[in-house]
Amino acid sequence: MTVDLRIPAELPAAAETYAAAGIKVFRVRRNKTPYANCARCDQKSSLYIPHRPADCRCGVPTCHGFWAATTNVDLVRQWWREEPDANIGAPCALNGWAVLDIDPRHGGDQSLAVLEQRVGVLPGSVMQLTGGGGLHIVYRTPGVVLPGGLGPGLDVKHNGYILLAPSVHSSGGRYRWSGHGRFLQPTVGWPAVLTPRQRSAA
Ligand SMILES: [Zn+2]
Ligand SMILES: [Zn+2]
């Protein structure tokens, strides 16, 4: 299925647009402080019940950070009605993505050049400008564990999350999809040259 979305300029409408297209989103505060877990999910609480976030059954829709991400449009509408300024987070692997995060402020452009000298030019895919001078290249996940980074300023977002346009970067700029500002679901797979070799199941 081709997903090609025109992303509204306002955060609440944009969040709904992503969710309605099947992209899991969750709220991220501008200062990134996480929403509190409920007592049963809070490891510091005496009521805590040990469980993995993926297995949570508490029913509170904001527990465990990005594990709370949802495609439920009604819930998303409610979240952004409560906090219209919240940024839009999207877990990467849970959405089928593996993202190369290039931050020139920390030498990411240099690291990418060095990497491409070694492995060849990486395939192009859907790109997002981060609003802070950085770039996301969004690939389809290879479905295996990936390293967290490939060099200074060159991170791999896979188990974590990214912010989606039109979220506001800490520098004040807004995230924006490259090209015409539309979001396209990536069809290009994570480069095989960057995928750790799998141990063969003998
Ligand atoms: Zn909970
Ligand atoms: Zn829980």
Task: Explain the overall architecture.
The chain is of the alpha+beta class and 202 residues long. α1 (11-20) runs antiparallel to α2. A hairpin with a 5-residue loop joins β5 and β6. It has helices at 11-20, 73-82, 108-119; strands spanning 4-6, 26-28, 87-91, 97-102, 126-129, 135-140, 149-151, 154-157, 161-164, 176-177, 182-184.
Task: Count every beta strand, where a strand is a DSSP E run of 2 or more residues.
Answer: 11
Tell me which ligands are bound: zinc ion
Largest sheet: 6 strands, antiparallel
Sequence stretches where pLDDT stays below 50 over 5 or more residues:
none
Radius of gyration: 18 Å
Strand-residue proportion: 15-25%
Spatial strand arrangement across the major sheet = 7-8-4-6-5-10
Helix-strand string: EHEHEEHEEEEEEE
Number of domains: 1
The portion of residues assigned to helices is 10-25%
Q: Whole-Å distance between the termini?
A: 36 Å
Structure classification? alpha+beta
Any idea what the shape is?
A: globular
**Overall average pLDDT:** 93
In DSSP terms, counting alpha (H) and pi (I) runs of 4 or more, how many helices? Answer: 3
